[in-house]
Amino acid sequence: MSKKRSIPWGEWFIPIIAMLYAAFTLTDQIIRGLPKSTVIYSVFLISIIIIFAVTSILKTWVDRPEIDMSDECRTRRRQVAKRIIFFLIWSAMFMPGVIYLGYIITIFIYLGVLLWALGLRPWGKVLALDCGFVIFVHFVFVKLLDMPLEPGILKGLM
Question: The pTM is what?
Answer without folding.
Answer: 0.52
